[in-house]
Design a protein that fits this description.
The chain is built from 15 helices and 27 strands. It is α+β, with helices and mostly antiparallel strands. The protein has 6 domains: 93 residues, 2-Layer Sandwich (Phosphorylase Kinase, domain 1); 188 residues, Transferase(Phosphotransferase), domain 1, CATH 1.10.510.10; 62 residues, 2-Layer Sandwich (Trypsin Inhibitor V, Chain A); 60 residues, 2-Layer Sandwich (Trypsin Inhibitor V, Chain A); 53 residues, 2-Layer Sandwich (Trypsin Inhibitor V, Chain A); 58 residues, Trypsin Inhibitor V, Chain A. It has a 6-stranded antiparallel β-sheet. It has a 3-stranded antiparallel β-sheet with strand order 7-8-9. Strands 13-16-14 form a 3-stranded mixed β-sheet, covered by helices on one side. Strand 2 and strand 3 form a beta hairpin. Helix 5 packs antiparallel against helix 7, helix 5 runs antiparallel to helix 10 and helix 9 runs antiparallel to helix 10. The radius of gyration is 48 Å and the shape is elongated. It starts with a helix and ends with a strand.
Length: 661
């Protein structure tokens, strides 16, 4: 069926870059599509979260954080994460596209794997987990579905860190609001306390090893609760109980990695990988290609039922018992002594011994061999009794080393060398202890029982916070809300003028943005009042055009008032400005009115007829006129050249005619 018809998401282009081409897989929490990266022209995998999760803000926030953490991992055995986003109501993750199948698909088709094949798959899984654990990332959901096997045999681990960000259904368990994995692979501490660390991944990887060897998980049940109960209250059975003939060393490896007490497991994936290498060397298991298709397990290979078939007595797959470690390629036949707890011996192929058959008579060399074996057993018991006595005496106790001031990695090594478990390791701020060094431990010193949990407090350095420079230029209320939400500092507000930042927006901070701030330190948010006030310049005596250009250059709006008259400036020049220079600075962009001179002032000619000459001259000059006298045998004004009451320009000359009165 065409997925483009049945799946409306196919064909969408997310963020203008990723075109969804084909649906590859679908689950309760997400759907995976093959997509084309239109920018880089390559095929990628896009995981789209289920709609009910995409509308949960808490989920989206956790998903974003975990995706960023997973993107920091760069390892050949880890599925690379290149991008994450949200578009058209879809929350998605962009990953490397691996062409092939999951380990679940392989086990469904094959039933189980040989020891060599199981090691070939598990080693790259542990290599990828080692890189994650060293980066401080715990997977929390190791299972066959998250192990991808490429067509070229390259093994990759998928979904790093994402189990913490999603809430699953069906076979999942949740504690304290945090999803802790698929029930069939959960560690007891995850089920009981909701806690997960690197050793929880070790437990899940041990369960996966068991499943690869047997074809099914160790615990089953009608409900997830029934499965969880078995993880908490029962030890994982030996794989050889399901598949006779498996080496006892493999049984012990599964037992060590799936102990219910996390303190008894390898510390992390790197330690598990080292133990796996030791077992490979002890058994002489030669490397084989990672299985990608048909089985190489031989006649005993299980079918897709995932249930083992026990070999029948006398069947060719039930060979006699052979003891490992013989000289050259020979193996000496022997029988297992009853009552020994070391487990049955196996041959180089990891097969269990068949039932011992009575033989007629006991040759001398057999008697000597039995005598030597009896002596060895007695010596072993003596050593065991001594070791138990030492353990019950002083051997159980160890001293807590002094770790204050040591680097975190070195401190953990010292604790482990002393037989102690660094759990938990927590981080705290410190003004005196540098970042990454141990502040204190609990207990701090003294003798304790080996395996005791020691709480290690590691310094994060001085507690400092930084105001983001991105808040400059944003509204003051928005900037203050962001600071109060994100930083434990005190806020005050200041104001200042700024020629570029609009009023009400943030100009900057005091101390400046980016400064390392202590908790509760006072930060002043400086708010713009806009442009600073501007003083009006003196433009009198300038032409109206020049005065307008000068004022507008300073941001003023210029208006021209009705022309006036003055004898202070020439006609056509600016005679007055309002507001003027004496008014002081005015707000930027204010309106300024200019008045242009139309000439000297006008005056009204007074009536000086019949006045004595001196009085008439004084009156006319007092009115702003110039006087010229013409005398005819007298000193009293007989006539004036401009009639009284007329309006003339100041400074106009008037002639008076004098005669006898």
């Amino acid at each position: 069926m065409d997925t483009a018809v049945t799946d409306p998401v196919v064909g969408l282009v997310l963020e203008g870059r990723y075109r969804l081409e084909e649906r590859l897989a679908r689950g309760g929490m997400s759907t995976v599509y093959a997509a084309t990266d239109l920018r880089l022209h390559k095929t990628v995998a896009v995981k789209v979260m289920a709609e009910h999760l995409a509308h949960d803000p808490t989920f989206v926030d956790r998903f974003t954080r975990e995706a960023r953490a997973a993107a920091m991992l760069s390892h050949v055995n880890v599925v690379g994460v290149s991008d994450q986003g949200s578009d058209q109501g879809l929350v998605f993750l962009v990953m490397e596209l691996v062409r092939g199948r999951t380990l679940r698909d392989l086990l469904s088709a094959r039933g189980r794997l040989t020891v060599a094949e199981a090691f070939a798959v598990l080693e790259p899984v542990l290599a990828g987990l080692t890189a994650a654990h060293r980066a401080g990332i715990v997977h929390r959901d190791i299972k066959p579905e998250n192990v991808l096997i490429g067509v070229d045999g390259l093994v990759k681990v998928a979904d790093f860190g994402l189990a913490r960000a999603v809430v699953g259904t069906g076979q999942t368990s949740q504690t304290g609001g945090v999803l802790i994995g698929t029930v069939a692979y959960l560690s007891p501490e995850q089920l009981e306390r909701g806690r997960a660390d690197a050793r929880s991944d070790i437990y899940a990887a041990g369960i996966v090893l068991y499943e690869m060897l047997t074809g099914h998980p160790p615990f089953g049940g009608d409900t997830p609760l029934a499965v969880a109960y078995q993880h908490v209250h029962h030890d994982v059975p030996a794989p050889s109980a399901e598949v006779p003939g498996l080496p006892w060393q493999v049984d012990e490896l599964v037992a060590r990695t799936t102990r219910r007490d996390p303190a008894g497991r390898p510390l992390d994936a790197g330690a598990f990988l080292a133990e796996l290498a030791d077992v490979r060397t002890d058994l002489g298991v030669e490397p084989v290609p990672v299985p990608t298709g048909q089985s190489s397990a031989g006649p005993g290979t299980l079918r897709p039922t995932n249930r083992p078939t026990r070999p029948r007595p006398g069947h060719p797959s039930d060979p006699g018992t052979e003891v490992l470690g013989g000289r050259g390629s020979r193996a000496a036949r022997t029988s297992t002594l009853p009552g020994m707890g070391a487990g049955p011996t196996t041959d180089v192929h990891g097969r269990r011994p068949g039932p011992a058959r009575p033989r007629p008579g006991v040759p001398d060399h057999i008697r000597r061999r039995r005598a030597r074996l009896l002596i060895a057993i007695v010596l072993l018991m003596a050593v065991t009794v001594g070791a138990v006595g030492w353990w019950l005496g002083s051997g159980r106790w160890t001293d807590v080393p002094s770790l204050a001031g040591k680097e975190e990695a070195a401190a953990i090594d010292l604790l482990q060398d002393a037989g102690l478990d660094p759990d938990p390791v927590v981080s705290e701020w410190s003004e005196t202890v540098p970042d990454g060094q141990v502040i204190a431990t609990d207990p701090a010193s003294g003798s304790v029982i080996r395996g005791t949990d020691v709480r290690v407090v590691v310094s994060k350095g001085p507690e400092r916070y930084v105001v983001s420079p991105d808040l400059v230029g944003r509204p003051v209320e928005e900037a203050e809300a962001a600071i109060q939400e994100q930083l434990p500092v005190q806020i005050t507000r200041g104001e200042d003028y700024d020629d570029t930042v609009p009023p009400g927006m943030v100009i900057g901070f005091d101390p400046p943005a980016g400064t390392q701030l202590k908790r509760d330190q006072v930060v002043t948010v400086v708010v713009s009042q806009g442009r600073a006030p501007v003083a009006v310049p003196d433009v009198t005596g300038q032409s109206p055009e020049q005065a307008t250009r000068n004022l507008e250059a300073l941001g003023f709006t210029v208006q021209r008032a009705e022309d006036g008259r003055t004898d202070a400036v020439d006609v056509g020049e600016v005679m007055a400005v309002e507001p003027g220079p004496a008014s002081g600075p005015v707000p930027y962009g204010s309106t300024v009115r200019i008045q242009v001179s139309a000439g000297v002032p006008l005056v009204t000619v007074p009536d000086v007829v019949d006045m004595p000459e001196a009085e008439a001259i004084a009156t006319l000059q007092g009115a702003g006129l110039q006087v010229e006298s013409t005398r005819f045998f007298g000193d009293r004004v007989f006539r004036q050249s401009i009639k009284p009451g007329e309006t003339v320009e100041k400074g106009t000359e008037i002639t008076i005619l004098l005669t006898f009165g």
